[in-house]
Amino acid sequence: MQLHPRYGSDPVITFDGSPAAIAEPSIRQRRRLAETLASFGPDEWAHPSRCDGWSCRDVIVHLETTNGFWAYSITSGRKGAPTQLLATFDPVASPAEMVAASELSGGEVLDRFVASTDALVDVLESLEEEDWTAVAEAPPGHLSVSAVTHHALWDSWIHERDVLLPQGLVPAEEPDEIAAALRYAAALGPAFAVGRETGASGVLSIVATDPDLSLVVEIGERADVRWGTGPADLTISGDAVELVEAFSRRGALAQPVPAEMAWMLDGVAEAFDQG
Description:
Blueprint: E1 13-15, H1 23-37, H2 42-46, H3 56-78, H4 93-101, H5 106-126, E2 135-138, E3 141-144, H6 145-164, H7 175-195, E4 202-209, E5 213-219, E6 223-227, E7 234-239, H8 240-247, H9 263-272
Parallel strand pairs: 1-6, 4-7
Antiparallel strand pairs: 2-3, 4-5, 5-6
């Protein structure tokens, strides 16, 4: 597997709304996860996660690594020097190799995760209004810092569930976190299709409940995401959490998708496989 990030001044994903609004839910989610992990003992750390072949410890090793990347990417972007570190990155093999190389105990992993979370939160809290629209790097390529933070929240939100659900623990479901994760998950598959230069275009509409929200992803030269409704080539509806899970390849959609429209939803699986 290899990503096909699109670099340059034309971000492959755009969002309407306030760019800085993603800060609060992103910081809250990471702080909450760190607090939850502080109660883990050896059995919890060793418990299998939803990621194939990974224990809960392994998932947090991965998140500690990504925390460092997000902090570096955002810091570089706000300085006007966005990175291009993912051009040759294998999103399946490389994280697995990093996790396999770690021999840290659960307690040591927690300490490193807390430190990396603190460092990332410091970066997010230091951003000025104009910094949120600066260009930084995420797997789809160069995005706004706001969109990069959306990716970071979506990834951590899903992995929080990967760790907690198999142990019978109930993850928090904050409406603004769900909304942000859904917006990003809906845009990510189309963005990967754009990055691969498939030439596909169309409009994807999402109508979700609990929380109630509607959004449209217009796919062409970019994946442009806006709140609201409108004519669409494919409309997906359902429970918001279940939709995020399905778009993130942690569950199946409750409705059939025409074969000719499947490309709008398959990009995440093609880029990341499942894990």
